[in-house]
Amino acid sequence: MKLLCVQMIKDLLGEPINYQKVTKLTEDAKFESGDVKASLAVLEFVLCSAAKYNVDGNSLSSELQQLGLPKEHASALCKVYEDKQAELQDQLKSQSLRLSRLAGVSWRVDYTLCSSELAEVNEPSVQLRLNIQDGATGVINPIAFTLSDSKLRVLLTELKTAQQQMSELS
């Protein structure tokens, strides 16, 4: 059980899982392919849930025993979990809440000298292009829009206010 947990922790921390080792570890128990996959899925769920909710090793062991896992298996799992709990929590934090981020900005100022459609001429407008990188896929999507001078000032004021509020929270 301990060696199987070690393999799962390695996988959760970003290292590739060694399926040959896992197969060798489960041969003695005469696990079939489906049983091995189910065991790994359960271990992943238990370890991730315990790390997510900051469960200590003793509580986890007690809960697993109440669910019917033998004490020696629960102890082995909890020993591995306690050794890597902080690393596992850091890894899960880095993977959670992946928000889109600003990958780049480009802008230009245009002046309209005359127009049959605009009442105001000689008023500057700002062409703004934001390149947004999707947090999950990493794909960059451009978003382009035009702002008048007054709307640009309002946008800048609102962004500065939001930045100040965020810095106060952290």
Automatic annotation (TrEMBL):
PROSITE patterns per record: COMM
Q: Which InterPro entries match?
A: COMM (IPR017920), COMMD4/6/7/8 (IPR047155)
Against Pfam families, the record matches this protein to:
COMM_domain, COMM_HN
Q: Which residues form the COMM domain?
A: 101-170
The name under which this protein is listed is COMM domain-containing protein 4-like isoform X3
Species per Swiss-Prot/TrEMBL record: Petromyzon marinus (Sea lamprey)
Q: What is the lineage of its organism?
A: Eukaryota, Metazoa, Chordata, Craniata, Vertebrata
